[in-house]
Design brief:
Radius of gyration of chain B: 17 Å
Shape of chain B: globular
Radius of gyration of chain A: 40 Å
Oligomer: heterodimer
Number of strands of chain B: 0
Largest sheet of chain B: none
Largest sheet of chain A: none
Distance between the termini of chain A: 70 Å
Number of helices of chain B: 8
Number of strands of chain A: 0
Chain lengths: ~140, ~180
């Protein structure tokens, strides 16, 4: 609160209207009561000061900003924080570990197949059986 | 003065990525950011860039926000004003003697030529003010901040704020004399 607000003067009233406009409800709270007293005791002076300030307020309000476009809204929302998904610790669950081991087995078998160019038909059958077993294991883990 | 921050609870929910809170915060703050930036820059497209950049700062800051240190709205205004001043500085670096071509006053198309002309004149009169006077008027008149909060955002005393407001409004009255006199 400025020093003159308790005992409001004409000069102070005009300064407040000049700074904060013609609507006393938008003035600093501590000044409003003293302003109301002056408005009651000097209605002609105070109304003229408020009208001058209010005319400028109205002129300023003639400029209304454009609204935000949908594209801007979409860009802002796209960058917003998202709820965290399961972190790395979730991969320690038994089902996930099982699936990981099964996948490693598949990879190992495939490498083995690549390396054994001269495998016998019987061995091919064995490899096929192994892949089938691994595939069944994966199915079981996914269903767990 | 009420010291509780009306945005604090919402910000905490934003920090954990709650979609409804994100949308609510954007709905609450985006119009204010657009209003602030357009009045400071006089350009709707640049204002959108400022709003987007300000929200990037919000998303980054939300998980680290420490309640009770500052009001979120005050902080957000300061962030947006800094972004506006960055742009105003860049403009001056490439400035000619001509003021930037004005500008997007932004009234809806159905408001008619007279309203559009009035808005353009206000926009130009504001753009012609010294930066700090314009900032004071934008914060107090358009953003409706209280005098203490506006002074805090600007980093000045309340008395200095009042002085900036008074000088700025007198200049505007002179520039808009035919519109602003009764």
């Amino acid at each position: 609160m400025a020093p003159g607000d308790v005992g409001m003067t004409r000069e102070r009233f005009e300064s407040l209207a000049e700074a904060y406009g013609g609507d006393v409800s938008r003035w600093p709270a501590p000044a409003r009561e003293a302003a109301a007293l002056m408005m009651a005791s000097e209605p002609g002076f105070t109304q003229a000061a408020l009208a001058r300030a209010g005319a400028l307020d109205a002129a300023l309000d003639a400029w209304r900003p454009a609204h935000a476009g949908q594209a801007l809204l979409a860009r802002i929302l796209a960058a917003a924080p998202r709820a965290r998904r399961r972190g790395w610790i979730g991969w320690l669950s038994p089902a996930a570990l099982g699936a990981g081991l099964a996948a490693a087995c598949v990879a190992g078998v495939m490498v083995g197949v690549e390396l054994s160019q001269h495998t016998s038909a019987a061995r091919e059958v064995a490899v096929t059986n192994t892949l089938t077993a691994v595939s069944s294991s994966l199915d079981l883990e996914e269903g767990a | 003065m009420d010291d509780t921050d009306p945005d604090e609870a919402l910000l905490a929910r934003v920090a954990v990525g709650e979609p409804a809170a994100v949308r609510a915060l954007v709905g609450r703050k985006l119009p204010r950011l657009m209003s602030l930036a357009q009045r400071m820059l006089g350009d709707a497209a640049e204002a959108e860039d400022v709003a987007q950049e300000a929200f990037l700062r919000v998303w980054k800051q939300a998980p680290r926000w420490r309640p009770g240190r500052a009001k979120f709205d005050t902080w957000l205004h300061r962030v947006a004003l800094n972004l506006c001043y960055d742009r105003l500085r860049r403009r001056r670096e490439v400035a000619t003697d001509q003021p930037p071509e004005q500008i997007d006053p932004g009234p809806p198309p159905d408001r008619g030529l007279e309203a559009r002309d009035t808005a353009a004149r206000v926009s130009q009169a504001l753009a012609a003010l010294p930066d700090r006077q314009r900032e004071a008027i934008v914060l107090c008149h358009y953003q409706e901040l209280g005098n203490i909060e506006a002074a805090t955002v600007m980093g000045v005393s309340v008395e200095a704020l009042e002085s900036l407001l008074g000088r700025g409004r007198r200049a505007l009255r002179a520039a808009l004399a035919d519109m602003a006199e009764r």
